[in-house]
Each structure stands twice: as structure tokens, then as C-alpha cells.
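Example record for the data management plan.
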Amino acid sequence: MAEYAFPHTGPNEDRRLELLEQHLDPLTKRRVERLGVGEGARCLEVAGGRGSITRWLCELAGPTGHVTATDLETSFLERLDLPNLTVLRHDVRVEGFPERSFDFIHARALLMHIPGRLQVLREMASWLAPGGSLLVEEPDFGMWAADYDSIWAAHPRAWQEAFPNGSPSAGRALLRQIHRLGLEEIGADAELDVVAPGTPLAEFFRLSLERTSGPLVAAGLLTAAEAAEQIARVDRPDFLACGFAYIGAWGRAPAAP
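Corresponding structural encoding:
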């Protein structure tokens, strides 16, 4: 069984993450702007991936602010050359930061891959300065798993069995977990994928399925033929199905007394 499905060294990972950025960045930016992050902010981007939101946060924070971007694999982040950016190889499960270090903390599609999710959230909340904001965004497999296309809907269950540290309900769980972090001004929203053939979103899902098909077949969860049919399904003209629900939850640390 594998721990993580998408190492940066894998084939087409740069393209897969680029497609994910194109799809999710507008939603993330709307959420961040709602929280009022701006000039002078000390920002932490946990699991920064390919770095598009990291780059944008550097623009928001400006020359008087600073962004720290972390990941287990920093090869993509290290391509960014920005004066107000620090890139760290960092495992959020076991490595921390001093309390009250950041005015804004963001993580996207992180918790779905790791155990101990509530404890990780509590740690991140402790790193907020008084009045600082936490935004966490997680995909949820619920609508995908319930889709009427049985070939397509088989993937979430198989993925969870092949990657047992992963959670297909990380998004839904945020709606409870955000209330357990000692934050104020809590809110949440969601956006649902509807995947249509021939779209950039379909390409993202196809590349993701290609990356995970090997472990699923090796674990005996799908046959090679079933895995191939799932991959091919997104390009069929009669395909139209649910993908992830992208759930975002946020809150603000209490102001200093």
C-alpha cells in the first residue's frame, strides 16, 4: 500500500497540478479576498504544490509582508524567485512553527492525504497571530462516490483502500473540525465539479486516474481492465458526472485582549 499517490517526480505531475491550479485558484482567491489578507501580512502556505497561490500571496503581502511556503517536495516551489518568499521542506505532521507566527495560513488538498487531520489543524491554528485567519480547502468524494455512472463511482472506494491514510470525506469533516480550533468568525462554502469530456477538468481527472491506477490494480481493488475503463470514461462523448466537492472552511484567531 502506498502512502501518497502523487509524488512530484511522477509523469505529467507538473501538468496535472497546473490543471488543478487553473480550476481551483479562482475559488481560493475569492475565499482569501473575503478574509482581507493584504499588504504586510505574514503568510504561511502549507503544502504549496506547484506554487500558484504562493506567488499570488507574495503579491498580496507586498514588500512589507512575507510568505513561507512548505511542502514535502519543494522542487516546484523552488522555481519561484521572489524577494518576500521563503521555501521550506517541511512535514506538517511532525514539524511546527512558533505560536503567533502568521497573520494568514492556507492549506489546500492536504488533509485528504494524511492521518491525524484534526491535530494538524489544531497545530496550524496555534501558529496564528491574534486576529489572524486560517483557510483550509479540501476535496470531498461524496458526490463522486454517489454518481449514477457505476464505472466512474467505483474509484473513490478503491482509492481509499489503496491509500489508507487518505480520507474521501476530508471536506465534510472540515465543517465540524473548524469549530474545534478556538477560532471566531467561522464560515464555509463549497463548489462542485461536474466533469465533461474534452475539458481541462476532464484532463485533470484522467491524469489523476492514470497515476493511481497502478496501486489500485496492485492492491487487487480493480482489474487492469476496470482501471483502463475508468481512465477512458472521461473522454467518452456520453460522459457527464460529478467529481469533487471542494469545501472551504475558515476562521479567525481571537484578537489580543
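Summary line stored alongside the record: The mean pLDDT is 95.
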